[in-house]
């Protein structure tokens, strides 16, 4: 089970009946996690409608990766922006505001018109969205476990190995001294990076290949961490 699928599962399970949840989550989570392998832009707005109905925008742990994923799909399909925005205008008001932010964040030609008129957002939501700073996970070094989730969202949409390498690089950071400022966050980050790499090595041949490429060129602490991630993935996959 991939990192993104687990995030969506945790967020949505309590919002649906068990039978419906299993069906909805498999469709939503797997489609998102493996999008880069089989891009299907013609299904994108329907999928996003389904995600909104299932409650994907209700919890931050699922909401923000979904917003970044949507941003990346929009960047790859700028010519579809206006039509997609029109299709998404019927999403619930809560989901629509987050979709509006994804359009704004993508900075495609249709973004401004989508946010300001097409989606039918409130004046308050429009003002908030247009006043935010655009966010690109690849342009910064991850500073929290949440940043790692955003990188996995980029990878799921695009297959970009830069996103995976940024997660790998977290494992190369020095182990923090207990009790020092930021030590708890760093321990959480390193743990989340290793766990998510292990999980995605199992699920994605491309991730396994990216990790293997780094293993043959790295040494010291990072080589050891990657060896352990691969070994753990192998054990879990048996």
What does this structure look like?
The chain has 238 residues and is mainly alpha-helical. It folds into two domains: 3-137, no CATH class; 160-236, no CATH class. 69% of the residues lie in helices and 0% in strands. It has 13 helices and no strands. The protein has helices spanning 3-12, 18-33, 44-54, 60-76, 81-87, 93-106, 111-118, 123-130, 145-158, 161-170, 183-203, 205-215, 220-236. Helix 6 (93-106) packs parallel to helix 8 and helix 11 (183-203) packs across helix 12. The protein is globular, with a radius of gyration of 18 Å. Residues 1-21 form the signal peptide. Keywords: Signal.
Question: How many alpha or pi helices?
Answer: 13
Percent of residues in β-strands = under 5%
For the termini, the CA-CA separation is: 14 Å
| Sheet/helix structural class | mainly alpha
Tell me the count of domains. Answer: 2
Mean pLDDT: 88
- Total number of β-strand segments? 0
Shape: globular
Helix amount: 55-70%
Would you list the SSEs in sequence order as H and E? HHHHHHHHHHHHH
Low-confidence stretches: 5-22
Characterize the largest beta sheet: strand count, sense, and whether it forms a barrel.
none
- Supply Rg: 18 Å
List the helices and strands and how they pair.
Layout: H1 3-12, H2 18-33, H3 44-54, H4 60-76, H5 81-87, H6 93-106, H7 111-118, H8 123-130, H9 145-158, H10 161-170, H11 183-203, H12 205-215, H13 220-236
In short:
With 238 residues, the chain is mostly helical. The chain has helices at residues 3-12, 18-33, 44-54, 60-76, 81-87, 93-106, 111-118, 123-130, 145-158, 161-170, 183-203, 205-215, 220-236. Helix 1 (3-12) runs antiparallel to helix 2 and helix 2 (18-33) runs antiparallel to helix 3.
């Amino acid at each position: 089970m991939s990192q993104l699928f687990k995030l969506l599962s945790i967020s949505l399970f309590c919002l649906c009946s068990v039978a419906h949840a299993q069906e909805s989550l498999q469709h939503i989570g797997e489609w998102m996690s493996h999008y880069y392998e089989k891009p299907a832009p013609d299904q994108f707005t329907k999928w996003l409608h389904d995600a909104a109905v299932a409650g994907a925008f209700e919890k931050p742990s699922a909401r923000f990766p979904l917003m970044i994923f949507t941003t990346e799909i929009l960047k790859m399909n700028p010519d579809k922006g206006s039509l997609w925005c029109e299709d998404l205008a019927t999403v619930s008001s809560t989901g629509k505001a987050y979709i509006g932010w994804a359009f704004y964040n993508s900075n495609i030609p249709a973004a401004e018109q989508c946010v300001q008129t097409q989606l039918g957002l409130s004046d308050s939501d429009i003002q908030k969205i247009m006043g935010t700073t655009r966010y690109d996970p690849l342009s910064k070094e991850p500073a929290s476990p949440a940043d790692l989730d955003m990188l996995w969202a980029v990878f799921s949409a695009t297959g970009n190995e830069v996103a995976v390498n940024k997660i790998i690089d977290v494992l190369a950071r020095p182990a923090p001294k207990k009790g020092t400022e930021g030590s708890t966050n760093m321990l959480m980050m390193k743990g989340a990076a290793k766990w998510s790499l292990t999980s995605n090595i199992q699920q994605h041949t491309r991730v396994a290949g990216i990790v293997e490429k780094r293993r043959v060129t790295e040494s010291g602490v990072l080589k050891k961490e990657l060896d352990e991630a691969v070994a753990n993935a192998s054990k879990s996959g048996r």
